[in-house]
Predict the 3D structure of the following.
Amino acid sequence: MQPREDWVELDPRAIWDAVKETLREAGSRLAADPVRAIGVSSQGETVTAVDRDAQSLCNFIVTFDNRTVEQVKFWERTLSRAAIYRATGMPLHPMYSINKILWIKGHLPEVYRRAHKFTLVEDFVIARLCGEFGIDYTLASRSMAFDVEKKCWSREILQAAGVEESLLSPVHPSGTVIGTVKRELAAELGLPGRVLVVTGGHDQPAGALGAGIAESGTAMNAMGTADAICPVFENVSFSNAMLADNYAVYPYTRESLYCTIGFNLTGGLLLKWYRDTLCREEERAAREAGADPYSVILSGMSDSPKDLFVLPHFVGSGTPSLDPFSKGAVVGLKISTTKSNLTRSIVDSINLEMKCNLERLAANGIPIREVRAVGGGAKSDAWLALKASCFGVPVVRPRVQEAVSLGSALLAGAAAGVFSGVAEAVKAMVAMGDTFEPDPRLHAVYEEKYGKYRELYGRLADFNRSLE
């Protein structure tokens, strides 16, 4: 929902109804092998206020909702970017949950007064399932109010914000049992009498776990609404260079490891915009053929890259610039430009934006030698082949594409004793499928195009800010 320009909200009732529908279907399908545990993972930053029974007092304010620019100005007056980064591992940005909580405090004072907790999606669902509040370290980190080294809520941040710690859920490692599904709810959903409710994680590190990421050098690339890459490492580092590139540092879903994410908020979302706005013919053809509209659209790509550039910042930029004022652009249009050229340039732009992140991560001591692609976009062989040639490294498609769900299930299975631990769960359940190797000739073409693409954001940044 978009009640105003630049606002994005989700109805908590719709989320809860979808959770119940999913669990009801799972209980029905798995009657012969009943559900023993439920792992809960979710997108980050999105937050709502709830009462003691986890009933929402307002809509969820979603990650890329941009109403919280004024809260960023508050932090700039109160603490330095470096101090916030050292305290929380998060580079200052409007998207983080603490800013949304401060917005509610300032603009919806009655909601703030009545709130028992402010929950992200994970702890909202957990509380509705079992009646107890709990959130894992990875998702708590996305609030910009969590001390990622001490693994507790940051006293420094909460005191500066004037937010009581009691308004936030207790924190736990990923894979912690919080409770069991309420008896009456289990009966309603057709679940057994005692089903464990387990912390999962922020969707990106949960998906990385489901893709089998367990060591440095390998990273998950989630090709969903946003395009995100998640590598892991052993030693936490809040370097000035990492902060300058806006790379968060926070706990991974496996103990003793940390992770970061490079992301473009307009990944699959850009393709959806393109489909809805300019690809009505392809949608109609897909309906008539019973095909996926995105497959039809991508099948129309031109065979080679053109000197046509798309800046995929339709809801602001992600890393490394993390600029909420950046906007989308198409540069290089000519009277001879075709839709197939534009389709190819849109796909190329998403890949080139991620290539920029691979370059910056390597400069920060996090080189990536293999990418494991998951999510809706990873269904496309053509896209993965282009991605490998753009990146210059192999791109592997795990057999299970719903990596976030699998990662959550692995954590739940380990908590329920199905596996001796998370490592055994990954070994038993995660397998790789197709591998796409870079085409050296096409990689050289992309290297040349990337040299021009890197200039695009900088040349347009001041102009885009002038539009605010």
